[in-house]
């Protein structure tokens, strides 16, 4: 696939076929990730975890459910509105057959570089996924929620090496509807040119 075509086809996919990603396609994705740029080339600070076990994803998704409940509780306290008793089923991973978590070694030397690194890896994964006919979506919200619930032990569930923190996830799978090229609205990023 031509590079511009990959860029134009890439979109956030949130509906997946309930089929596993073929192992060789998953390997290709992980191989692509290795070509991502990393600050100071400290590649040893990045760790990827492939999760295909729905039970683990379900446990991690609990963080999003709890956060939504807390938000609903906050809303009730502030606005005195009725909160539905039933726990709303939330799947922050959209039923994707695989989620690749991007973790970074905790560090304070270069604040923020861990997110920049993780984003470079994530975008590389997205573009590779798209070029392979796979769909993907960046997962950020639930990872933030995971940190708010220490008893969830998300680093333990992900079996991370010591001192690593998961920052982003890329949920991937075979898209329910094949993706096609699209155009961008003109209201896109603003640009200024300096003479
Ligand atoms: C930093 C960042 C965080 C994001 N977090 C989430 C997320 O937690 N869940 C989700 O469904 N999409 C998430 N997205 C996907 C965006 O909503 C999506 O990229 C945006 O709406 C543009 O749509 P497109 O990807 O189809 O071009 C995130 C994207 C970025 C760049």
Automatic annotation (TrEMBL):
Q: Domain (Nitroreductase): give its ranges.
A: 7-173
Ranges annotated as spanning the membrane: none
* InterPro entries named in the record: Nitroreductase (IPR029479), Nitroreductase-like (IPR000415)
| Superkingdom | Bacteria
* Keywords for the protein's UniProt record, in alphabetical order: Flavoprotein, FMN, Oxidoreductase
Which Pfam families does the record cross-reference, listed alphabetically? Nitroreductase (PF00881)
Q: What cofactors does this protein use?
A: FMN
Gene Ontology MF, one: oxidoreductase activity
Q: Where is the signal peptide?
A: none
Q: Which SUPFAM superfamilies match?
A: FMN-dependent nitroreductase-like (SSF55469)
The UniProt entry's sequence similarity note says: Belongs to the nitroreductase family.
PANTHER family tied to this protein: NAD(P)H NITROREDUCTASE YDGI-RELATED (PTHR43673), NITROREDUCTASE (PTHR43673:SF2)
Query: Protein name, please?
Result: Nitroreductase family protein
Give the species.
Candidatus Scatomonas pullistercoris
Taxonomic placement: Bacteria, Bacillati, Bacillota, Clostridia, Lachnospirales
């Amino acid at each position: 696939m031509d590079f511009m075509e990959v860029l134009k086809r890439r979109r956030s996919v949130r509906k997946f076929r309930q089929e596993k990603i073929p192992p060789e396609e998953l390997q290709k994705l992980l191989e692509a990730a290795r070509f991502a740029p990393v600050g100071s080339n400290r590649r040893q600070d990045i760790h990827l975890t492939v999760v295909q076990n729905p039970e683990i994803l379900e446990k991690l998704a609990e963080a999003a459910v709890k956060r939504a409940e807390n938000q609903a509780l906050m809303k009730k306290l502030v606005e005195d509105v009725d909160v539905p008793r039933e726990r709303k089923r939330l799947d922050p991973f959209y039923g994707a057959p695989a989620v690749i978590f991007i973790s970074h070694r905790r560090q304070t030397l270069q604040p923020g570089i861990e997110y920049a690194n993780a984003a470079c890896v994530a975008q590389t994964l997205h573009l590779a996924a798209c070029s392979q006919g796979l769909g993907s979506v960046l997962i950020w919200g639930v990872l933030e929620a995971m940190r708010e619930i220490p008893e969830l032990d998300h680093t333990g569930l992900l079996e991370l090496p010591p001192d690593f923190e998961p920052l982003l996830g890329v949920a991937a799978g075979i898209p329910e509807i094949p993706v096609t090229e699209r155009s961008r609205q003109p209201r896109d990023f603003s640009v200024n040119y300096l003479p």
